[in-house]
Amino acid sequence: MHTTVGIIGGGPAGLLLARLLHNSGIDCVVLESRDRAYVEARQRAGILEQSTVDVLRASGAGERLDREGLVHDGIELRWDRKAHRIDFPALTGGRRVWVYAQTEVCKDLIALQLKDGAPLLFEAQVRSVEGPDTDRPVIHYTHEGQDKTLTCDYVVGCDGFHGVARNAVPAGVQKTYERLYPYSWLGILADVPPSSDELVYAHSPRGFALLSMRSPSVSRLYLQVPNGTDPADWSDERIWDELDARFAIDGDWTLRRGPITSKGVLPMRSFVTEPMSHGRVFLAGDAAHIVPPTGAKGLNLAAADVIVLARAFAHLKDTGSAELLDAYSDTCLKRVWRAEHFSYFMTTTLHTDPDQSPFDTQLQISQLDRIANSPHAAAELAENYAGLHIG
Ligand code: RFL
Ligand code: PHB
After folding, report:
1. What is the pLDDT of residues 17-74, one digit of tens each?
2. How much is the pTM?
3. For the chain, what are the domain ranges?
4. How close is the Cα of 101 to the center of ligand 2, in Å?
5. What is the 3-state composition of the chain as percent helix, strand, coil, each rounded to the nearest 5?
6. Distance 104 CA to ligand 1 centre (A)
7. For domain 2-70+99-178+269-354, which architecture applies?
8. Separation CA 124–CA 142 (nearest Å)
9. Catalytic pick among 183, 203, 293, 351
């Protein structure tokens, strides 16, 4: 089998890239190691930036998003038993974010792809990419129990942090940057209407907590927990009591409790690999970079990468020039590093490091007070959260 662009991974990055290439008349094949049900059920991101929504709409995948997505014009920060709202449109010249789960983005893109898109193979496990420096890189994969090859003009690794595409960049060329955090998130889904219309990010002496949602009847909540925490050690009652304690403010506010339908622990990591391309192999999304989820940037970065990449492939097709493809890594890395900093900033400002001193805590409080008291500091947060135009 031969294709123009071989895409490894059918998460949001791979699926959106396939859609954008299809719309530009460029053929591609998507190889996804998991089955469809697994990809459609994997609980992850919940927040889409304006630019991600814009591209989903333009690509024809915005219909259900427009019907069911929840537009949010701000977030609330809590610390020291007080609350402060950040108004995105007022601080950013009109930008806002959408609550629409990654599961739903994937379902919409998969349905479109299977209806009229390029081939999307589930349970197709890629083992390696051969010849990234040649004109015909080859993807080796296993499908239906058989070893197969896909010859490509270009390969895009959208296979996430644990994927294999990154191995195509020789060790001597690759530079990686990483930061691990001394805490994880315990995330729950609960069948209860969200207790706030907007997301609430809470700093507390007991650790960080986040209130998010999936729909008007389903809440998504997170608690900072120590690394290595077993979700089985957290009874439903313990989770609600801890959330209650961390979100507590002076004044009227009640956390609504309801049946918890899922519990999971996720570690936090910052990671960047440079360059994001080598020869004819390109990396996009979590395959190239990871952010801790506090800034809600991961899915949006993945979308931004493939927008740049799809534009570069269309430019090559229309003009014969590979200049945009050649610039891909540099173009993306500027935005990636900004999002890395913002995600790090949100994480370290809001979480309690187990080794944190009272001095460190006062710095966090001072920073949060500054955001509440300075429109400039608030605008810096709002612009980064709602999404910057870079690249
Ligand atoms: P994915 O989603 O990991 O998809 C990679 C796909 O590649 C497949 N794969 C392979 N296929 C074939 N052969 C192989 N050898 C393969 N190896 C892997 C995998 O099965 C998978 O389907 O990466 P992608 O597409 O780059 O998308 C990135 C996003 O998933 C990720 O950045 C976000 O989920 C991060 N994130 C959030 N991002 C946001 O923008 N806003 C949020 O609110 C937000 N919240 C979150 C998050 C991530 C979380 N977790 C669990 C990491 C909340 C959580 C809890
Ligand atoms: C989510 O709804 O899963 C979510 C929202 C905001 C974040 C992280 C996760 O910063």
Report:
1. 999 999 999 999 999 999 999 999 998 888 999 999 999 999 999 999 999 999 999 9
2. 0.96
3. 2-70+99-178+269-354
4. 9
5. 40, 30, 30
6. 13
7. 3-Layer(bba) Sandwich (3.50)
8. 6
9. 293
